[in-house]
Specification:
Elements lengths: L3 E6 L13 H18 L8 E13 L6 E12 L2 E10 L4 E11 L10 H11 L19 E3 L18 H7 L8 E7 L9 E5 L3 E6 L2 E9 L2
Antiparallel strand pairs: 1-3, 2-5, 2-7, 3-4, 4-5, 6-8, 7-10, 8-9, 9-10
């Protein structure tokens, strides 16, 4: 059963003014661990494309700034062209995050591509027969007004779209002051956001949306467990 572990350190750029491990930084560490696992398993980035469909974070305990962290990850579900990946981040001096992301496997034409036998042989065992859930569950904004949100050129990745970790930055903004652990947050990636899209951040107390061209590009929910 394949499980991958890596050690990192929380850097100054990962934290806010209080030393809290930011949500966008956590998402970036999750993404990097998934890439490291993929390469370590003998795959390459050129022949496979993965995009995140949904991420669920549970920040259970606070971390100490600049502490060493251990990040473990494994496949927790499969379904056609989708795979679920679990993560656990633990700090050497305390701090705990449990997370799961749903990833969609794409071909070079950027259309969904079924998981092949090699993937299932390496990653399928740890899924233990669980099906990766791919349905969106968060509501629509129902015509609520929003405010303009601008992404930066540095937020765009090699696919030409805003990277999944950058979607957490506007949530840091609209949920400021309410992000101390314990925290439970869900982010659904509905459609890509491109640099130059006129994006609006629409938010209530517990749900937020990124809207562009009249379409919901992402939806998120904040909850205290």
């Amino acid at each position: 059963m394949r499980r991958f572990a890596t050690r990192k350190r929380i850097s100054l750029s990962d934290t806010d003014a209080t030393g809290r491990f930011r949500l966008d930084a956590i998402a970036r560490h999750l993404q990097d661990a998934a890439s490291e696992d993929w390469l370590d398993a003998g795959f390459d980035h050129d022949s496979h494309v993965w995009v995140v469909r949904r991420t669920e974070l549970e920040v259970r305990e606070p971390f100490r700034p600049e502490d060493e962290i251990e990040l473990r990850t494994w496949c927790s579900g499969v379904a056609g062209s989708a795979a679920a990946r679990r993560y656990s981040i633990a700090g050497a001096a305390g701090g705990l995050v449990e997370a799961e992301s749903i990833w969609i496997h794409l071909g070079q034409d950027l259309r969904p591509k079924r998981l092949d036998e090699r993937f299932l042989a390496i990653y399928g065992i740890s899924a233990e027969g669980r099906r990766a859930p791919t349905r969106f569950t968060l509501p629509a904004p129902d015509g609520l007004a929003g405010e303009r949100w601008r992404f930066r050129p540095t937020d765009v990745d090699r696919l030409g779209h805003v990277n999944n970790a950058a979607y957490w930055v506007p949530l840091e903004d609209c949920w400021a002051g309410r992000l101390e652990p314990p925290l439970h947050a869900i982010l659904e990636y509905r459609q890509p956001v491109d640099l130059g899209d006129a994006v609006e951040l629409v938010a209530t107390d517990d749900v937020a949306w990124l809207v562009a061209g009249g379409e919901v590009r992402a939806a998120a929910r904040h909850a205290t467990p």
